[in-house]
Write a structure and sequence with these properties.
Blueprint: H1 3-10, H2 17-28, H3 37-50, E1 60-67, H4 82-92, H5 97-104, E2 108-115, E3 127-128, H6 146-165, E4 170-176, H7 180-192, H8 208-224, H9 233-240, H10 243-257, E5 262-264, H11 267-279, E6 287-293, H12 297-305, E7 309-315, H13 321-339, H14 343-346
Helix pairs in contact: 1-10, 2-3, 3-13, 6-9, 6-10, 7-8, 7-11, 7-12, 10-11, 11-12
This protein binds nicotinate mononucleotide (NCN) and 5,6-dimethylbenzimidazole (DMD).
């Protein structure tokens, strides 16, 4: 049995009996019923995941999975592929947006090389988990072998385990990979059976001509891979995905198997979570969506998972940034649940049933 199967066996859909109890508590707080909207939903979902009404403020951990893409050599991104490795150094020295936003919410940030086309001999703080030096161009052949996809998933799972062992109880999957919005859109188009134009955006900032080239690339790739079996989610991930997307899927599944919630970020992170749910639908109750990306394929995948993003700030950076920002919302939800007075304790007249 592959180690992935062991993780999947441990994923248990949380019992929903806590939902009603959490709602009773929320309805006793000094506010009109439901007036705190999705903050209430977040608190109730955390109670369901934890199987308890005792919520503690989460300790957040983030991992940025970096990998290169064969497609990046075919003009699907505005930026050269070397930027992936250069940004890894930036993450390690603490200067990227994700570092700044994680410092705001006291989150550790691990940086993981799962497939960058660069030797990081001079980077002791990097987690070295390189599976390959980037993917192949999926317009011509599968991006990865099945073994590579599974190895990347297990690399992600190992990082999740380490973060959780170190005390983190809320995980963020981040990523860096020039070209990775093309893979994410291809996965969305394939699994949701959408025309690629409906789920493909400008990524790092392509113009109209670049966007048309990207859509054509995905159409060509879907034609090449048309015989893929949609029930073989790992096979589809290997053919169309990326090493960091596979790592995120493994990371999210491992977190779910340990009962730890995950906040998905933009289109790439959402693609990782989406593939994770295709592999194991029981993992979905552990996933939140941190923010709505400008990249339109993300909304389609979120709809497929019935997840609503917590924030919408017109962001399209990735790295985990939107998810890191949304930790403030999660913290607010926990504080509301724990600290608000009830109608009884505050002597406020409540609503008659
Ligand atoms: O998170 C998002 O929704 C998102 C949207 C557009 C771009 N990105 C980031 O930009 C890179 C991919 O863009 P591209 O154009 O090279 O496919 C990659 O490093 C992502 O982290 C991320
Ligand atoms: C500079 C830069 C930073 C990024 N962070 C995530 N994707 C990125 C893409 C570029 C180009």
């Amino acid at each position: 049995m592959h180690r992935l199967e062991e993780i999947l066996r441990q994923i248990k859909e949380p019992a929903t009996e806590m939902a009603e109890k959490a709602q009773v508590h929320l309805d006793n707080l000094t506010k009109p019923r439901g007036a705190l909207g999705r903050l209430e939903q977040v608190a109730a979902r955390l109670c369901i995941i934890k199987g308890s009404l005792e919520l503690k403020q989460p300790t957040c951990g983030a991992a940025i999975f970096a990998a290169d893409h064969g497609s990046a050599l075919d003009g699907v991104s505005l930026y050269p592929r070397e930027v992936t490795a250069q940004m890894v150094y930036n993450f390690l020295s603490g200067g990227a947006a994700m570092n700044v936003l994680c410092r705001q919410v006291d989150s550790v940030v691990k940086v993981v090389d799962v497939g960058v086309d660069h030797d990081f001999e001079d980077a002791p703080d990097l987690i070295h988990a390189k599976v390959a030096r980037g993917t192949k161009s999926f317009l011509r052949e599968p991006a990865m072998t099945r073994e590579e996809a599974l190895d990347a998933m297990m690399a992600g799972a190992k990082v999740a385990r380490e973060l959780i062992d170190s005390g983190c109880d809320l995980l963020i999957p981040g990523e860096m990979g020039i070209g990775n919005t093309t893979s994410s859109s291809a996965l969305a188009a394939f699994f949701l059976q959408k025309n690629p134009a409906e789920v493909t955006g400008r990524g790092t900032g392509l113009d109209d001509e670049g966007l048309a080239r990207k859509v054509d690339y995905i159409k060509g790739a879907l034609e090449l891979h048309k015989d893929l079996n949609p029930c073989d989610s790992v096979g589809v991930l290997a053919a169309l995905g990326g090493l960091e997307i596979a790592a995120i899927a493994g990371y999210a599944l491992k977190a779910a198997s340990l009962g730890v919630p995950v906040i998905l970020d933009g289109i790439i992170s959402t693609a990782g979570g989406f593939v994770a749910c295709r592999i194991c639908p029981e993992a979905l109750p552990y996933f939140f969506s941190g923010h709505a990306s400008v990249e339109k394929g993300q909304a389609a995948m979120l709809k497929g998972m019935a997840l609503e993003p917590l924030l919408d700030l017109d962001m399209r950076l990735g790295e985990g940034t939107g998810a890191a920002l949304s930790v403030a919302v999660v913290r607010a939800a926990v504080a509301i649940f724990n600290e608000m007075a009830t109608f009884e304790s505050a002597g406020v007249i409540g609503h008659e049933d």
